[in-house]
Fold each of these.
Amino acid sequence: MRRRDVLAGLGSVGVVAGAGVMAVRGPPSLDGNTGTGESQPGDSNETDSTNTEPLTIETIDAPGSEADAFRVPAADRATFLDFFGTWCPPCVEQMPALAEANERIGDEVLFMSVTSESIPNEELADWWEKHDGSWLLGLDPTAELTARYLAGGYPSAVAIDASGTVQWSDSGIKTADELVAGIEQALAAGGQ
Amino acid sequence: MDRRTYLGTVGIAGLTSVAGCLDGTIGGGETGNGSSDSGAPNTILEPPEMDLSESSHPSYGDELPSLSLPDPLIDETISTDQFEGERAVLMTFVYTNCPDGMCPALTLRLRRTQEVAAENGFSDDVALLEMTFDPERDTESKLRTFADEQGVDAEADNWHFLRPETYDRAKTIMTEDIGLPFKKTDAPEYDHLEYMFPHYNLILLANKRGIVERAYPNGASIDPSKVIDDVETVVTE
């Protein structure tokens, strides 16, 4: 029953893709809704994103941010991460909602945007200022943090509770309400 | 995550992902690269949990399609065959105008493999091949920019962008060699795009014998560490 719903959804995709009617076989795996990937069908031997070693993420000098280093996820509070790229038009569109979410709830968590691109810090800071960033701006030069938490495409957001467990994640452009609701899930989970 | 919730949203995700990149398992029946049903003596990994042998794209135990394509960054022709006996191949298919971030997500899996390979000393045992199927827009300079944006070390010996000479050639490769549906479509919802390519997010891993060890049809969402672990197993065992 549920499986049929799933297959019907994929069929639509196939038609839109211009491939005509094609057989769909096996459990589908679609992007953008699996968070840490825990629920991907057919994918055993998952590496759960809880209980993984925290990483040290360097932040840069930019509006709302300064050159520093942070343990991510934080040990003493919840963490909110936005994964973006300066090359990514939807990431620009995401900025106002991030700014609003940061104003509403940013004080209660470690609130950080992270990019894994190769770009000089000054260019990155210029982009940040141009798009009214006003919170921590972190670098992930090896993409290890990104690989751990990216929930599909860019932009992507994740809210992690104080124990390091992912409580919410989503990719694509989110509203401020959605971001705040995700962060509230991590806060409600506690984990300290 | 609650499984019911997950399944309930799959349909929606399927529709929205049409924006740029499709994901999932598709079957092709007769036209596919058939593989033997019983085991694959030339493989190192155990058969995958999900049997993809009936899918239209290459899967476990199949030969990696033989492709010779220009790498515009070094102005050389790179052939998938040239790595036999030398390197495992991790390969995916993208276009840099991909509007919803799925191609960067695919690239992230290759890029992380490159990073871990360097850390763990198997850089020379793997070739990371990223083919654009949009050669009209993905010029050499565009690919270089994309590499920087994605943090890829495109100068490394193990990284090659592959760029078919023409759109028609790209289409032939995607549909006939790789076995995936392929079509240029309008992109009315994206102001900055004249056209886009709904496509499947496939990553292929072949061993040093040129035999496919894994096809990841959910290549943009699969845990990157799973892919990296598979590559490392294939090159070290």
Amino acid sequence: MMVMDMAEAQQLAGWLDAVASEQDKAAFKQLFDHYSGRIKAFAMKSPGVSGSATLAEEIVQETMIKVWNKASLYDRSKANVDAWVYTIARNVRIDIQRRNKKHDACIDADDLWQESDEPGPLVQLRQRQLADNIRAGLDDINPEQALVLKKMYLEGKSQREIAEEFGIPLGTVKSRTRLALARLKLLLQEKEL
Amino acid sequence: MSHHPSEHLLTEFASGSLETGAALCVRTHLEQCHECSRLAEDLNVLGAVMMRSSDQASCSDELFDRVLDQLNSSPAPEKATGHTGDNRALSALIPGGITSVPWKKIASGVSSYELPVNDGEYNVKLLRVEKGRSVFQHTHTDTELTVLLQGGYSDELGSYIAGDFIECDGSHVHKPVAHRDQDCILLTAVSGKLHFTGAIARLLNPIVKY
């Protein structure tokens, strides 16, 4: 399982490199095939999209164009491709959500949620181990805690909105989040990586 | 630096569900805090795993061609600029930097500048407290997030220096006093209202809007 993941991670990074260095459209098609269905499912759940396949595909389209345009900014020593694509799709969703709420987008989502410049060749390895831990942890996490993470990450809901939706105190949402992170070994003091 | 955003706030940030005003404060702290940046990166990995482990939806057949068409008409790919460390978000709001801010005096020794962040939730501003001066004692009906950009201050709860991130709510009553060595500049995002609690300052509640 671990070996498969590693091979896949290398493959994805290789395609992205080919897009960056040679504007390789065949490699880009591979990335598109790998990610488009996932991004669309992710986009469908977002509140501004409310199940519209057309709008969800716009998010896919915008995300993949950014993947193409930003490919040369991708640094495989800094993040795995999954995490990198996730941040791009998330930022596209944020911009679309803001447009829907008619809020002034005085700051681009890319500027606020820009990729970090955490240095170090160990980041890839660390992130891969982390992803394995998270995957294992998500399977047996308490359903109430998992639901809070899902609402935040997949539906883009703030903790306040989640509290309102379920009629529970904001403090409960916060503590569920914290317990989930602890279970996934994401809290600083619990990490050994 | 010893004051950081809570893990649940960083999770909201990484999930993209945090309002712009609060996200600006978190971003500003991350620029200066390696530890929290790393946690935020890890929380992005959580997002990637969640995106990956949820279902897939099939896309229409011509979607890839539509993307290709757009590539041909879109600007050239971005090249790495070599510096990603600037706070582009804050720079976008104050292009001339902190020295160019048109401060507006709101009380003796205290000036402010409202930032044009309209997120429907947070009121976002820069505050400058002259060295040794203080802000009236106040509490909040909701949340106050603060990041120190320059100088330092102390209040009933602790002492803070540049980069520190402070999250206050209705359970905190405080009267921040700027340290004596230099003017203190803060970025603050407040949801709900500030409520002045001192005897004289209470009279200001209907008047002063921080």
